[in-house]
Amino acid sequence: MTQDLKRLKRIGWGVRTVFALGIAASLAGNVLHAADNVISQAISAWSPVALLLAVELISRIPARRGALSAVRLGATAVIAGIAAWVSYWHMVGVATRYGEADSSAYLLPFSVDGLIVVASISLVEIGGRIRTLTDAVPVAAATPAIADVTAPETPAAPVAAVDPVPVPAVKKLSAKRVTPRPASAEKVAKVAAKMPDAPVSQIAAKAGVSVSTARRHLATLRVTDASPSAPLPAETPALAAA
Q1: Separation between Cα atoms, residue 93 and residue 83, nearest integer Å
Q2: Do residues 233 and 192 make contact, with C-beta atoms less than 8 angstroms apart?
Q3: Which contacts of 191-200 are long-range, i.e. CB under 8 A and separated by 24 or more positions?
Q4: Do residues 148 and 27 lie in contact, with contact meaning Cβ atoms separated by under 8 Å?
């Protein structure tokens, strides 16, 4: 696809050269037939120059389909018609002045105008094909590959070995396992704290436990919380006898 694009561009420059040659021949005929003053020569030279500029514009600038594109092509066709008509009669007069026969003098301008028409149409066609190929070329193929210029990694300098700092051993402390008190013991302890002089039966009834359970918990409380000489709560004679 890239080769086709380059080939079309070369052909385009060749066609543009042919078109410029036809415009130059038409321009020379118009100037030679004009009166010998600058204003007349400029007026006669304008129509070929206008055709050259119009064809260059429509061949280089893409146009969308629609009314504007039709207007642009129509205006170019009108300019080409005016240039062909003016150039034809100017060249007929020049050919007759310089010794051409009547038939050749009237046919010679067709070769110049026909060359301009063919070259202009070819130039527009090649311009459209070049734009189509340019749009079809993927961006990755159109962009040259970028060389990997990443600098090589510099090897790190060797680091001297350092003796590890001794870390003092930390003595592992074993946590003493504490068995939580049962809920009944907490109840008995709370009631005994509120009623220190109450008998065991009353403490058991208040805590909602049996007398034996209350007695066991009270004995444990006496060993852990109270002093060794602290007496147990008094028991009723009936319970003591039991």
Answers
A1: 16
A2: yes
A3: 192/218, 192/221, 192/233, 195/233, 196/233, 197/233, 197/234, 198/233, 199/233, 199/234, 199/235, 199/236, 199/239, 200/232, 200/233, 200/234, 200/235, 200/236, 200/239
A4: no
The pTM (predicted TM-score) of the whole model is 0.51
Report the alpha-carbon distance of residue 208 to residue 85 in Å, rounded: 130
CB atoms within 10 A of CB 112: 22
Question: 167-171: which pairs have CB atoms within 8 A and are 24 or more residues apart?
Answer: none
Round the CA-based radius of gyration of the chain to a whole number and report it: 59
User: What is the domain partition of the chain in residue ranges?
Assistant: 2-142, 183-241
- Token code pair at residue 17: 């050269």
Residue 102 CA to residue 236 CA, distance in Å, equals 163
CA distance 178 to 180: 6
CATH 2.30.30 is held by the domain 183-241 = no
Neighbour count for residue 200 (Cβ, 10 Å): 22
Tell me the one-letter amino acid at 86.
V
pLDDT, one tens digit per residue, over 22-65 is 999 999 988 998 888 899 889 988 989 999 998 888 888 877 77
Of 48, 50, 30, nearest to 40 (Cα)?
A: 30
